[in-house]
Design goal:
By secondary structure, the protein is mainly alpha-helical. The protein has one domain. Helices cover 82% and strands 0% of the residues. It contains 18 helices and no strands. The longest helix has 38 residues.
Length: 503
């Protein structure tokens, strides 16, 4: 009976998807085909690998909106895939070679990693928005100055993270109720990662700057190469050298170092527009203030979200190693599943930033509409896939057949997947708000998430155990979506009455 229900669901899902795609885009089908072709044909937009100034860029300021967003997001999707391979390969090898306790240690380290590194990466993303806007304005002097500011602030933040974690990492892990049995493994893993936070910041800054000028392809190429290297180094450090958890971290840092070097070589050869001169590093109070406000807003937002994750992990840590391992496995699979949404987030951010700089509000409004439709279709596909394959994937990734681990991991994915659409609304809308210069309201949404997770940890997890963990984020996403949707569509720039009839 269950199998029959699954088959019916899949049939209905794909029927619905095909119908919506046909209705939404049938009137523009030939136009879309033409636009996709023209992106590779026209002299001003073709994938130019020989230009010393531009490289392979996508024009987000002109032409078909949906086509440009999809073309721009495809390399980002694969970039996210290979980025996640850094951590997922660690998880697979750790689970199979070092056992369930080591897998639990990797899970316990995850929120700390997100809290510390996420802050630096959030700042990097915030800083790159100014580069996108200046590119939309066609102000190359401002673009170079924004790059100089990004380098200065990013270097300072990386040094602060490295110093703070040197002294306070272990006490922080104890504060999170990390079980004594996995404390040392957790510390060894995350201490190496945080010590070299500057490496990860440097890659994400370089990749963000390339994407800001419309080049989303080359970061993918560099990540692919470093991902292959990461797999080789994982096997060598863990299995051959016997370095344990520290080996997985060393492999990740080493492979990302390679990706940074490749990015820098490419920028110096093909994207010299991103290379600031000495004069661009001169202190500009207004520019530093504006970029610091944008960068730190996104950094604090990421930190608050990650702090909520860390608090939630503290509640999970009291549920036992098998549940921790099951949750860790499910979250790893979830990271893969939400990659299409993450790719669209980056596409929306760059698209909105450039068009905001060029003052093209109509293109921004239409882009958000397409992003929402895209999120709905992807959610339907993933919901059906989890109904069919979640259990097998949890068992495969964890390397364990323990019923507690597999059942809880499977249940998590099957409950959360239908809410991916709400998550897409949250992340796309928040990204768009940040791209038009709004800093307070996106930050407020992260505070809502933090408060919600604290409530669940204090009130619901002790009573309902892992069931409360599963429902925690979907419930919170719904409240966040309401706040952000209201804030974006009521924003004076977006809701200008002169544009309403044209949407």
């Amino acid at each position: 009976m269950l199998n029959l229900c699954k088959k019916i669901f899949i049939f209905c899902t794909f029927s619905f998807i095909l119908e919506k795609i046909h209705r939404a885009f049938s009137s523009h089908a030939w136009q879309l085909k033409y636009e996709f072709f023209e992106y590779f044909k026209r002299n001003d937009l073709h994938m130019n690998f020989t230009s010393a100034r531009k490289g392979p860029q996508i024009d987000l300021l002109n032409g078909n909106i949906f086509a440009s967003m999809i073309i721009f997001s495809i390399p980002i999707l694969f970039s996210n895939l290979f980025q996640e391979l850094y951590n997922t390969v660690d998880t697979i090898i750790i689970g199979h070679a070092l056992g369930e306790n080591a897998l639990a240690a990797a899970g316990a380290a995850a929120p700390v990693y997100e809290l510390l590194i996420g802050f630096a990466l959030g700042i990097g993303n915030g800083l790159s928005l100014m580069t996108s806007r200046s590119y939309g304005l066609k102000d190359m002097e401002l673009l170079k100055r924004s790059v100089a500011v990004s380098i200065t602030i990013g270097t300072g933040i990386s040094l602060v993270i490295a110093v703070l974690t040197r002294f306070y990492l272990r006490p922080f892990l104890i504060l999170l109720h990390t079980p004594a049995s996995i404390l040392q493994d957790t510390y060894e893993y995350i201490s190496v990662i945080t010590l070299f936070a500057g490496i990860m910041f440097a890659y994400n800054l370089c990749a963000g700057l390339l994407r800001a000028i419309g080049n989303s392809l080359m970061p993918l190429v560099f990540l692919f190469l470093s991902s292959v290297l990461n797999i080789v180094l994982d096997l060598f450090c863990i299995l051959e050298l016997g370095m344990g958890m520290k080996g997985a971290a060393v492999a990740t840092v080493a492979s990302q170092t390679v990706s940074v070097l490749l990015c820098l070589i490419y920028i110096f050869r093909y994207a010299r527009i991103l290379i600031p001169e000495k004069k661009h590093f001169r202190y500009d109070r207004h520019l530093y203030g504006e970029m610091a406000a944008q960068g730190f807003s996104m950094g604090f937002m990421s930190s608050i979200v990650s702090a909520g994750t860390a608090i939630l992990q503290a509640g999970i840590n009291d549920l036992g190693a098998l549940i921790i391992a099951g949750h860790t496995t499910a979250r790893k699979l979830m990271q893969f599943e939400i990659m299409p949404f993450s790719a669209m987030i980056t596409s929306v951010s760059t698209f909105v930033s450039q068009n905001y700089g060029a003052d093209q509000v109509l293109r921004i409004r239409k882009a958000m509409k397409y992003a929402y439709i895209y999120n709905a279709v992807i959610t339907l596909i993933l919901t059906g896939a989890n109904l069919l394959f979640a259990s097998s994937l949890v068992q495969l990734l964890s390397g364990s057949a323990e019923s507690t681990l597999v059942q809880n991991g499977t249940l998590y994915l099957q409950v959360v997947a239908p809410f991916y659409f709400i998550l897409g609304l949250v992340t796309n809308t928040r990204s768009a708000l940040q791209s038009i210069g709004s800093t307070i309201l996106p930050l407020f949404s992260s505070i809502v998430e933090l408060i919600g997770k604290i409530i669940f940890v204090i009130l619901f997890i002790p009573r309902f155990q892992y069931q409360a963990v599963i429902w925690c984020e979907p419930v919170i996403w719904c409240f966040m979506a309401l706040e952000l949707m209201w804030a974006f569509w009521r924003n004076p720039y977006i809701s200008d009455v002169q544009t309403k009839n044209n949407f």
